[in-house]
Amino acid sequence: MFKKILAALRGSKTEAPAADATTPITAYDSQGRELQISREEWREKMFLPTLQQAWDDADELYRQILTGINDGFAADLPAAGQRLVEIDANVDRSHTTLGIVHLSNGQLDAAEATLRAGMAKAGATGALLTNLAKVQFERGDEALSEQTLWQAVQAAPNLEAGLMWWATTQREKHGEAAYLAALRTAAALPGAWCPQLWLARHHLEQQEVDQARALYAGVLASGNFDRHALMMIANDLGSTGHLQLILDLIAPVYDEHLHGPTTGLNLMRACLELGQIDRGRALLVRMTALNFPPIQQHLDQFAQAFGAND
């Protein structure tokens, strides 16, 4: 049971699966055009040199390590992870990252030692505890893993990997009612917003739109959310056909500089579908000003679509 749950959560914000060695890497040129590069060429000519260039910059080194994990280059990362521990003022981030590197390489003892060293310095944070639970699970101690996982949820109810691993465990053991009860329990924890979004998804699936809207409104009114919250709300409302609610709920709080481009694209799509062309054009101007090449093709398509509605 735990193996199925953990497999479903691999690829979350705290861990990524090994990439297929035959899968090319997707990159973008300065014009925003998508390029496909062989994995070995990317590794030799782009990834490893960029990793080395980031050696003295904690933020950039962290980003490059995550890129390497996501692209399946974990074997190249132990030294970089150790370097991050040495230079990063964010103890939670650095020790979690090195722990994930060790986990990705199957080095469970090293992973546990790193995670516990992080806890000794930064406390038992949600990220450190979630990954310690993964170590314990990989060793076959499922009871201890579940206990640690609940501690992780209490420490960080908005860390989706830990939250949903724990809630899904309750569903697998006791059924749908236990899953919903787990989410409600987590939603009652101080500062929680992620459990509410998963409860709202359930209500949308049951066509209980008013209940979902109330949960969304509560989260957004609190101001206690991040870009991932807006992306999830927009995606869930869009996939269930509630486009006007995307605009009503998200547009007033969306800041393209804080919340990233994905939600902005969803807002423009809703504007286009609903025929709110002027509103969409105004948002297009804001998104274009980001000067972010990976979305340029999408922006060009929206510009053409909005222009065709003159």
TrEMBL record:
Domain of life: Bacteria
Alphabetical list of Pfam families matching this protein: TPR_4 (PF07721)
GO MF: identical protein binding
Signal peptide: none
Gene3D superfamilies, per the entry: Tetratricopeptide repeat domain (1.25.40.10)
SUPFAM superfamilies documented for this protein: TPR-like
Protein name according to UniProt: Tetratricopeptide repeat protein
Organism: Duganella margarita
